[in-house]
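Would you mind writing out a protein's amino acid sequence and the numbers that encode its backbone to help me picture the idea?
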Amino acid sequence: MRGARSAKWVAGAIVVALAATACGGGGSDKGDSPKKKGALAGYVSIDVGEPQKPLMPADTNESNGAYVIRALFTQLLDFDDKGEIVYTNAESVDTKDSKLWTVKLKDGWKFHNGEPVTAQSYVDAWNWYANSKNNQQNSFWFSDIAGYDDVHPEKGDPKSDKMSGLKVVDDHTFTIQLTDRVPYFNYKLGYSTFAPMPKVFFDDPKAFGQKPVGNGPYEFEKWTHKKLIQVKAWDGYKGPNKAENKGIQFKHYTTVEAAYQDVVSGNLDIIKQVGPTDLPKYKQDLGDGAIEQPYAAIQTLTPAFYSKTFKGVNPKVLQGLSMAIDRDTITKTVLNGTRTPATSFTPPQVKGNQDLNTDVFKYNPTKAKALVKEGGGVPGNKLWIQYNSDGGHKEWVTAVCESIRNATGIDCVGDPKPDFATDLEARDNNEVKSMYRGGWVADYPVNVNFIKELYHTKAESNNGHFSDKEIDGLMAKGDKAESMEEAVKAYQQVEKKLLEKMPSIPLWYYQINGGHGKNVENVNIDYRGDVELNKVTVK
């Protein structure tokens, strides 16, 4: 997700913004007492920036919106802290052949407006999400389902508004027929884009995105754009992740430093990620409230293969640029030991992670310069790294550029965008000059999520436009594997082939270095690196 939330770009997943945050509702002035500015009794506040898109599950592919979506909507299943399946709205998701799946829903679930959540709620929503006319960012997630090509053809208008693979059996049962076997398909259902929708959504989707009605632990209250999104606990929620507080305030900050100061002063409860400026002192400032924990996400540099810099580039150039980056020094100094240099395209917390045991990810300026030269060099001998300046990335991007410049002689400069949404729009509109600060957080804890969702030719999150028929073919074989274990092994082979193609340059694995103030407790982090907001309690 963009995300890793989402994914999501962050970010499952989902792009990983180090801290795509901002400031409106949470600024602090000298003399403010704790919880004075904009606080509500029993509510928890956290720094989460402006979502890129309206609040709809299938159109949210970055971490800011994902936080809110997960509060408002619940899909069929989720994952525990070990990455294993936990059923939420589903009673079961079964298959005998990895091609036909049967979903049974738990009884008694309702949307926030009182409408029952039924099998039809899922089938209608998924058909709408997948339809090319509706232009949803996550439509590709439904491409495994039979009939997807009818609702989402490569060219022209849809032939149908329904995928033939979705069948309602009764109010609490529906079946999913896939085009081919996908042994890990049930894991994909843990991504929030598979959430159901109430009937009111179809009346006016655009208006719904501003005031959504979900089936999750919290119901929508208000959205003051670029300042605050507020949700309150919903008493009618039936899931295992019921709210332990009265509500959540997602506050927008222009810098991570401003958010951090509000946590220290008591005007903000939780900061997801402390910026580089405050990393050396945050443990001392926050004491028991400091959080340090690895999670399933990876930072990359992703080339725009349509750009003048990298169009038709020889992979040797990208391998050379990778070897020009002193990951060890940058993670230890600029990032204060809060990141671990990457040894693969996937993080350790997902099934199938492997150490590729390659020199391509190790600093070697002599070989780096030679590989770049052998591959034909970089046009104009200059490249840019795009990043969002509200996320605490300037320092490490500057360090990476200096490392590349010193090792290869190529002029490397940062290309800052004011916020995460602007950064994402530039990617979506093919406006990246050379490469962008990519980052991905798990949508589901399987290596597939860090490979297919990013590097398949048709993947929605493939913003660099990497395309390779051999890679696509290997992915197709992995998807048709007989078992989950075989699929994971097949994608390990795909990953080894990625090393030859270099669709991105892996940098390091993520770690949460955030924290909370004295007004809240029970602040826990899940495998995605998200704060489990429903569990946070207010003192």
Remarks:
- Confidence is low (pLDDT under 50) at residues 1-36.
- The first strand starts at residue 43 and ends at 47.
- The longest helix spans residues 484-501.
- The radius of gyration is 22 Å.
